[in-house]
Write a sequence for this structure.
């Protein structure tokens, strides 16, 4: 707020404001009303002349660029009229070239204020000139009284002292920097604000000229203005220049300069100078310019509205994004972009958030001027004044149309992939059933015939059939394993594992094959290996058996080595890391083909299919299983020298010896069961016949059903001791059958063994869980026997 020692006096003073733009008048009026001035307003130069002559204001603020009579002509007319000649005139102008400024002083203006107007600067300059005019009037009055007092002689000295005292009070207490200089621009007297602003003491300034504290770039302009005032070309002027403080720092100041003239000779005998520090204004202006450039140049659309949502500003990015020009947007409301995609409740919630003073962020679907739809991510922030009242809102908008299109495409691709995955799972489940069902018959009857045929040639043929069937079964299992891993449906079954025992069993398994090819089979196990580790034994065996099988297949002479090294053994925390490796001296793998070795169905280029066979699935499964166990598999190979496959598993848990000993291998047994009735439910006659033959040796009474509906009828009539139930059947499938059996109190307790060729789908798992046990086609004799022993009464049991 404007304050000085003469506030009470200056609040009663009258100012005339002249501007042909009502909005500008309102701005200046708001500044000056708060300072307590009496205000007169004029919208033209012609009107102002009449008002000025009638009201005789204390100071006039005059716009330069006006229609009709401009500011320069108006000022000239005011200075010609005797009654308004002495009223100080300050120009308000956006013109900043020197010629216009000099023209203003030529026609009699005392100062100028550059637009855009700054409230503090306006009040400071008005205050300064009112004070100066007051000083001039006061000096004139006092001089007149002094002359009168000189004539009277009795009061002359007293009046002089009083005048000087009052002048010193005003001079020293002014909040702007004021100095008095002689005709050569040496400082004679400065006030406290001048000393504070420049950093010199009063004594030091007595030895300093005005030009000594002026930046070299501004010295010519400063000297020119001093000279013009000195020669009375003008009596005062205002201009900005850079000052140099005592410590060498520089600041920009508004410099008002006026001449002091002898009343008799009209010769200039000195100057009065008023300096206003413009540093804060320049910093504020620079910040505004930086922010303005940032908003104008940003690629994000920026919208500023008033507190009702009416648009006041848009940047170029907005006009480019929406197709609306600045003129079309300003004064409108953001609902010009409304697409109808969001309902009214959405906008109500947004408005409630904003009116509560909170930030709002979210996605909007908007419509351009041409009707096209686009997506935006919008951040809207309230802007508050000093009293914490919301006065504006600013929205920053980023076009995310391409991103949303990509998201939609990704979602569609995901849905297609899920459909494809479901189709794949369904296909594999069907394939599993359709292939395992005949394989069940092939391997089952082969096993039965093996005990019936004694002719060596026929036994050799039978062995060929059995080996081919087992090879095909291995292929099916590989495909299903890979599919389960890729579908994320394979889960680890971690149990206490003795790896020394696993290595011994694997070595025993492959010993005949290595001996048959004349290969040196070596097993190397680290001495510090803990006895028990938490692992999925089945998957470790699967990886090692696959890698050893490949090593033997591709090695004609030399060495096969199975090794296990321990790393990072931490007894305290019961963890360690293991490195398994399978090394051979076989044909090797070219470097350029090694990175593709772990892809499904990939085989080494040039590899003889007739000689080596294979499907290219084994290594892909090994890699997937290693990753499932949070490990990795790597290969190092040289053509003609062999290969090394390495599996690294980190931070495996070390266990104490299990409380229960692992089951030792049991020799095959002859089992005599108590008489029992078994119902075989399968729509395939060959499967029923195979199971019938496998069960006949135990003396069971076997009943057959072609589907679930037929089975329920037989169960109701006979109450069998055990049910072997297939899953996929016509009329009523296995799932429907087991559900009805478990819901019926009469049949709920009957043991049911699920017989399924499906090992991948969730439906197959659910079916197996509803039953009391499960076997997978093709059914191994030993697996079937264990199930029978679990549910039927045994009379005698002897080892064979």
């Amino acid at each position: 707020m404007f304050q000085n020692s003469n506030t009470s006096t200056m609040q009663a003073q009258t100012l005339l404001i002249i501007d042909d733009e009502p909005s500008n008048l309102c701005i200046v009026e708001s500044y000056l009303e708060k300072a307590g001035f009496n205000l007169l307003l004029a919208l033209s130069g012609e009107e102002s002349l009449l008002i000025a002559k009638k009201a005789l204001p204390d100071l006039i603020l005059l716009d330069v660029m006006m229609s009709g009579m401009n500011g320069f002509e108006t000022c000239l007319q005011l200075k010609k009229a005797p009654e308004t000649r002495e009223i100080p005139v300050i120009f308000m102008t956006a013109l900043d070239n020197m010629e216009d400024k000099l023209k203003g002083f030529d026609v009699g203006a005392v100062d100028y204020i550059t637009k855009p107007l700054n409230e503090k600067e306006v009040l400071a300059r008005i205050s300064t000139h009112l004070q100066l005019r007051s000083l001039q009037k006061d000096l004139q009055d006092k001089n007149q009284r002094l002359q009168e007092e000189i004539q009277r002689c009795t009061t002359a000295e007293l009046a002089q002292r009083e005048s000087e005292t009052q002048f010193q009070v005003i001079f020293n207490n002014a909040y702007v920097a004021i100095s008095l200089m002689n005709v050569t621009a040496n400082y004679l007297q400065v006030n406290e604000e001048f000393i504070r602003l420049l950093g010199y003491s009063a004594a030091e300034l007595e030895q300093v000229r005005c030009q000594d504290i002026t930046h070299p770039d501004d010295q010519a302009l400063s000297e020119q203005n001093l000279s013009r005032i000195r020669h009375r070309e003008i009596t005062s002027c205002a201009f900005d220049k850079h000052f140099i403080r005592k410590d060498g720092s520089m600041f920009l100041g508004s410099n008002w300069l006026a001449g002091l003239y002898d009343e008799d000779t009209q010769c200039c005998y000195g100057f009065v100078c008023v300096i206003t520090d413009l540093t804060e204004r320049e910093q504020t202006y620079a910040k505004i310019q930086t922010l303005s450039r940032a908003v104008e140049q940003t690629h994000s659309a920026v919208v500023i509205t008033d507190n009702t949502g009416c648009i006041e500003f848009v940047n170029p990015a907005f006009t480019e994004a929406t197709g609306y020009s600045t003129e079309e947007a300003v004064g409108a409301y953001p609902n010009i972009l409304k697409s109808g995609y969001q309902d009214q409740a959405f906008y109500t919630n947004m408005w409630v958030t904003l009116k509560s003073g909170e930030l709002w962020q979210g996605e909007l679907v908007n419509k351009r001027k041409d009707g096209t739809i686009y997506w935006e991510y919008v951040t809207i922030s309230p802007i508050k004044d000093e009293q914490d009242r919301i006065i504006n809102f600013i929205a920053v908008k980023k076009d995310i149309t391409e991103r949303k299109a990509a998201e939609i495409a990704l979602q569609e691709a995901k849905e297609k992939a899920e459909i494809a995955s479901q189709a794949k799972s369904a296909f594999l489940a069907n394939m599993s059933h359709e292939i395992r069902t005949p394989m069940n018959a092939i391997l089952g009857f082969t096993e039965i015939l093996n005990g019936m045929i004694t002719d060596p040639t026929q036994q050799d043929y039978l062995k060929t059939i059995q080996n081919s069937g087992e090879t095909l079964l291995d292929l099916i299992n590989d495909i299903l394993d890979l599919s389960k891993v890729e579908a994320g449906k394979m889960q680890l079954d971690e149990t206490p594992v003795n790896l020394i025992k696993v290595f011994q069993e694997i070595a025993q398994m492959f010993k005949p094959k290595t001996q048959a090819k004349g290969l040196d089979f070596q097993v190397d196990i680290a001495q510090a290996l803990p006895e028990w580790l938490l692992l999925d034994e089945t998957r470790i065996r699967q990886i090692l058996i696959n890698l050893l099988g490949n090593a033997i297949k591709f090695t004609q002479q030399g060495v096969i080595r199975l090794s296990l090294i321990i790393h990072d053994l931490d007894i305290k925390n019961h963890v360690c890391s293991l490195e398994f490796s399978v090394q051979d001296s076989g044909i090797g793998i070219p470097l350029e083909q090694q990175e593709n070795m772990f892809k499904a169905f990939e085989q080494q280029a040039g590899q003889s299919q007739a000689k080596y066979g294979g499907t290219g699935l084994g290594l892909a499964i090994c890699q997937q299983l290693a990753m499932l166990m949070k490990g990795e598999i790597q290969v190092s190979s040289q053509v003609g020298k062999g290969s090394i496959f390495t599996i690294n598993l980190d931070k495996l848990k070390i266990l104490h010896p299990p409380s229960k000993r692992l089951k030792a291998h049991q020799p095959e047994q002859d089992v005599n069961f108590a008489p029992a009735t078994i119902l075989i439910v399968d729509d395939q006659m060959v499967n029923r016949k195979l199971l019938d033959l496998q069960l006949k040796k135990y003396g069971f009474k076997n009943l057959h059903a072609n589907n679930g509906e037929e089975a329920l009828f037989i169960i109701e009539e006979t109450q069998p001791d055990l049910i072997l139930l297939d899953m996929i059947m016509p009329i009523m499938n296995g799932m429907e059958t087991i559900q009805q059996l478990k819901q019926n109190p009469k049949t709920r307790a009957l043991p049911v063994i699920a017989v399924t060729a499906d090992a991948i789908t969730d439906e197959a798992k659910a079916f197996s869980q509803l039953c009391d046990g499960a076997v997978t086609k093709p059914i191994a004799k030993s697996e079937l026997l264990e199930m029978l022993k679990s549910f039927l009464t045994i009379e005698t049991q002897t080892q064979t």
Observations:
- Residues 1-11, 608-614, 659-667 have pLDDT under 50 and may be disordered.
- The longest strand covers residues 642-655.
- The chain is about 45% helix and 25% strand.
